[in-house]
Structures are given as C-alpha cells and as structure tokens.
Amino acid sequence: MADMEDEDGGRPALPAPDFDFLVYSLRLQAELNMGLLPFDGDPDLERGRHNIDLLAMLQEKTRGNLTPDEQRSLDSSVTELRFRFVEAMERQKR
Prior knowledge:
By secondary structure, the chain is mainly α. The protein has one domain (19-93). The protein is 63% helix and 0% strand. It contains three helices and no strands. Helix 1 (19-33) packs antiparallel against helix 2, helix 1 runs parallel beside helix 3 (68-93) and helix 2 packs antiparallel against helix 3 (68-93). It is flat and about 40 Å long.
C-alpha cells in the first residue's frame, strides 16, 4: 500500500500518510464545507465546524507529542479556521 501508483502509471501516487497530510486534509475539508474553496454546492457550516472541532481535538490530544513544525501547523490551522468560520457565519446571516 506504500506505492499507490498503478503499474501503467494511470494514477499518481498518494502523499505519505503523515501528520501534516492529516492536518491538511481536515483543513481542506473545513474550508470546502465553509464555502471558502470553489465548489458547486452550498456551504455546510455545521460540517465545517465539525472538521474544525476534529482538528481542535487532535490539537488537545497530541500536545507535547509533536515536532515544533507539526505543532505550529496544527495551531495555525485551528486558529485561522476558527476565525474564518466566524466570517462565514457573518456572511451567511447577510
């Protein structure tokens, strides 16, 4: 499962399953749900909030066990997404 590329080269290999990719995936889902990325559907702020909460839980449960770069990435993602969630809520009220 380490190399996800088809033998004929049809599909690109997936990134390594590391902590940074996990944070990136959850962050991307939150941004998509909040309507911050191009998407044909309507924003789903509840799902966006859920992904932010998952990142915050991960932040709490891993504190003290991450490299400085991993901690910085996670902390900045949670902070920025919380701020952008408030902005998305205000946009939705208008």
